[in-house]
Amino acid sequence: MNQIVEPTGAARCQGYQLSKQRNAPDPELTQVGPGTPCGEYLRRYWHPVALAEDVGEVPYKLRILGEDVILFRERGGRYGLVHQRCPHRLASLEYGTCEDRGIRCCYHGWLFDVDGTLLETPGQPEEVGSKLRESVQLGAYPVREYKGLIFAYMGPPEKIPPFPIYDAFDIPGMTLMPYKAPFHCNWLQVLDAILDPIHTSFLHSRISRVQFTEALGELGVLGFAERGMQIVGTNTRRVNDNVWIRVNELILPNFTQAGAAFATDGTKVRYFGRSSFTRWVVPIDDENSWAIAWACFGERGDPPQWMTREGCELIEQGELFDRTYEEKQRHPGDAEATEGMGRITVHADEHLAPSDRGIAVMRQRMRKAVRDLVAGKEPPQPTAPAGQTIRSLGGDTVIHAPARKGGDDEAFLKEIGKKVLDIQMAGDARSDAERDDWVIAELKAYEKQLAVAQ
Amino acid sequence: MNQIVEPTGAARCQGYQLSKQRNAPDPELTQVGPGTPCGEYLRRYWHPVALAEDVGEVPYKLRILGEDVILFRERGGRYGLVHQRCPHRLASLEYGTCEDRGIRCCYHGWLFDVDGTLLETPGQPEEVGSKLRESVQLGAYPVREYKGLIFAYMGPPEKIPPFPIYDAFDIPGMTLMPYKAPFHCNWLQVLDAILDPIHTSFLHSRISRVQFTEALGELGVLGFAERGMQIVGTNTRRVNDNVWIRVNELILPNFTQAGAAFATDGTKVRYFGRSSFTRWVVPIDDENSWAIAWACFGERGDPPQWMTREGCELIEQGELFDRTYEEKQRHPGDAEATEGMGRITVHADEHLAPSDRGIAVMRQRMRKAVRDLVAGKEPPQPTAPAGQTIRSLGGDTVIHAPARKGGDDEAFLKEIGKKVLDIQMAGDARSDAERDDWVIAELKAYEKQLAVAQ
Amino acid sequence: MNQIVEPTGAARCQGYQLSKQRNAPDPELTQVGPGTPCGEYLRRYWHPVALAEDVGEVPYKLRILGEDVILFRERGGRYGLVHQRCPHRLASLEYGTCEDRGIRCCYHGWLFDVDGTLLETPGQPEEVGSKLRESVQLGAYPVREYKGLIFAYMGPPEKIPPFPIYDAFDIPGMTLMPYKAPFHCNWLQVLDAILDPIHTSFLHSRISRVQFTEALGELGVLGFAERGMQIVGTNTRRVNDNVWIRVNELILPNFTQAGAAFATDGTKVRYFGRSSFTRWVVPIDDENSWAIAWACFGERGDPPQWMTREGCELIEQGELFDRTYEEKQRHPGDAEATEGMGRITVHADEHLAPSDRGIAVMRQRMRKAVRDLVAGKEPPQPTAPAGQTIRSLGGDTVIHAPARKGGDDEAFLKEIGKKVLDIQMAGDARSDAERDDWVIAELKAYEKQLAVAQ
Predict the structure, then answer these.
(1) Which residue is closest to C52 within chain A, CA to CA?
(2) What are φ and ψ of residue A259, in 5° steps?
(3) Which end of chain A is least crowded, N or C, by CB within 10 Å?
(4) What is the DSSP pairing of strand B143-146 with strand B140-141?
(5) pLDDT digits over B373-396, tens only?
(6) From CA B411, how far away is CA C108, in angstroms rounded?
(7) pTM of the model
């Protein structure tokens, strides 16, 4: 303990110089409050804002996109999402009562419908009350419950898009379990991870501990594709004589799907397996976010044994959320990786690498959409073939395809990854009823064709 | 859970538009720190700042009007209210010792009298010490104990008004129990409630639960009067063959009294019953306040069974202060109503209604006084008939006065409310010794006269 | 409780006027973040930043001089002090793993050497990876472990001074116990106390309670000296027929030593006893600081019975750190005195007295050094005789020297104090091997000479 040695490489240490080169955050993509460019952009879309189980007999207070709002359910059954405060004297409606119709303020009993219409003003002279009921409105947002999630649209009423129905909302045999996970940081650093195909190998496998399957620790061959609002990253790995293609996707601005968490390690064939979650990253405010999602269980999703609250936490980020600091240090998950960047990360301080291509593209696309909106051009909505659901791709395919003797296996994997993704995308031309069978049949045909070519 | 229905009235929802119309707070009436217009205005009056029982063997640190101060009591007995920090090296006097005379700083032993005079500077050469003792002064404020409350005057010494003695300080047979209640919000939204005559019917009766007497759930006929610095709101209710007149009052800037909390439900006659509390709303800083008061027990106040800490909390706001969030949501009291507005409410976002007349008048009066002071005109002090106490009115009168067959009972109640208030105000012409008997006799005579007119 | 008395001396109370005369803090000496003048000044010196025992298997996150950094130890053994965030995607290295060589980021496995060199970028194409490894560097600082403390140099690499070795680091028979103590306030108000010779008599003896020895309650005769970067305050007290000279010292900017805490009360002779601690006051940020030190135990230090965590807390500040508010009020220690000034004290509000001479000089010297540095002149480093340790003085000497009958004992004490300090300083001319024996012999000779002169 007593030795005096020259400090290692003092001359090479650049802490002092580098501490002077700190940059500022990226407000264009990280500020989400009312009136900010990115906040306005996000307000052009439907977002999940809570779980149905959050809403009981009393109103539920929450913050979304930097705005404090109250979610409630009438005793009858309709949901309402309204501004926090009664326009009369600004008492918080979290203390109001849920009525057969609407919500009643605790302070003076004013009653508001789910659309914010002022229905009753007790204790005021009728001639004044009727004028108040015409002129005063509580801020409200369209809201709907869907399979245990509560979705809202917080943008301009005249721009309201149809509620988007994705294929993933109704896959035969799949059970959807709603969950939400808090992140104490800006939404974008949570979102980034979906298009970061190699953090799985490090954070979730090699470094922290094996959080999903051991095979994820293998770095695969990366692929990348864009289609409309969809950005897709693939990771193709060899597992003995099998080839495992994992597809992660983002549909702008914040819809995410990935491969399975626990369902596959590449050792068994799997054709067009689907995502472990159907998930949105939703800003609470600039410094906090929710991942709100269904975890997907069934033959084409994750094994039903994980269909618990803890299971959903593991699927979301590889580790339980509520842990000691020491546990977090020894076994970090996505929360540690993303929250550790600080409340709002600083893009200009990063050094993006080739594996970050998806992230870079996503930010460019989003920045363009935000700037377009500022310039008056509305952002696009996800589209679907006429009369069909919006198509998504996240999931895994594993085919039998031994390495070719003397061949360049990396090139071979790249080719297979591209072809499998092409087949899955080609499924879009089919109707909801036919598509999955068609894709699976094509994948099997391709597998057979490879065997023949061997 | 699976149905897809069109979101209710999406087109009527105005959350998006209304979230862009947020206004700013009202600094003229809500900023209370040193040097602010409203802070200066409030510093022209004596205010209670603590309970005598807050002050024990060690100094008591508190914040009042945005300033950190130390309240202490000499071992002899005098109270002192001084600036937080010793002018020598700025050690906090909360760690000082209470001496036979004055308070001694823990760091270097400097001793200060209750008026801030520097008495001792040990360890300094005498010639320097004597100069220090002449030139250095600890900030101090005049302070006095009165029936268990500690009052202070924090304004300019040359403007100090006489300590105001109200009639309510010494009503025969009345026991005063000191209490204080914290509100985590601006003082004005706590104060507002005293002139809000119908929140009692909603918050305290119909919506949360019956916190006082059930009869308060009835909306009565409102009356209103101003007299000097006094603003009075009356609520006159019919209870079977009785008429119950409840008088709430504010004496500017922050003296409040109300009707009884538990003593009457209007079923028994009561002549010139007095307030459930004699109470001041005192700013801690812009975002926190105290209600500091005596709860008043006795035949003309509330029943002595409530003379406990819990009883005082119920009298103050209808519910206990320290409760779970769920209890607060299910049974809100004044703390939830006022704190729920946010730390500093935004007057410009309100929509005041006819029942808010008293609040509107109070703010106008206060705003005028604040502006007058900025313009150099000192605000008025409460006045009393020569040699008498300052007269207050808060309380209840219940007289037997059955509805007139075929008559307009609302008009009748209005007439009775006005007459009862007139009688009580007319009592001002009498001396302290005669007044109450005179008012009670007049009320009884009026009751008899009504019976005859029947 | 009911009496009404005129508030004492209301007219003399100047709280109102004085609350308008508040000044602002002293940014030149209290702001310590990267790029601030004082921060730059402090970054010219080695500072202890942690205890070796803080660093285990996982990285240790800390803040020093307003900068968040990570201290870690390779499994091999070298320490590294690096910027908090990986330059790739800014994941926090507190979740990284300590490797045989360097630290590895949890998110994508980038590996950094202790000097910040990027060693591995797994998952990136080799041609890109090699460019990244050349161009990207993690901020790092030279760091060394020394007897259980971790020292770092956070300034410009080309200005790195030699690691300063003080005499106190290796006194024969002395055991050094590392400790650190948190202060929730600016560093300077913690540092000030070392040159405040009379707070010991008040805070640590007369007012709080006797925290060290009772004799410290006696105010002594003060002396003062400057030598190079060293500022020394002496306190000379008579204890019966003995004279006790206590030497406190600061070596700029933040090295402090004092007399013994428990070893002497002046009743037994002691020749050139040494400091109770060898201690640095190190800013965490503008509002928090560490005292990081060795407590010194042995015949010339404090008695080994205090060699515990609690003992170190008592030596540091007279009381344990983790106490209830009531205990702190009744028995304040240095933490209460310094933290009670507020997070950043306001020098312009102080009224310094003659006993604060050392504090005033220290601030002048420091202010000059800060301004010199802004003007381009590097601050001086502590110097040592060629080939020897840097000499320090903190400690106690007690000699037998009865008061002279009929003489001016205060003048006598002053003369002795000065002479003893002169002898100790004269020891600088001797080598490390000879110095202590020489000083002790001279002190004894002086004691004998005084006895003869009696």
Answers:
(1) A1
(2) -75, 180
(3) N
(4) unpaired
(5) 999 999 999 999 888 999 999 999
(6) 80
(7) 0.95
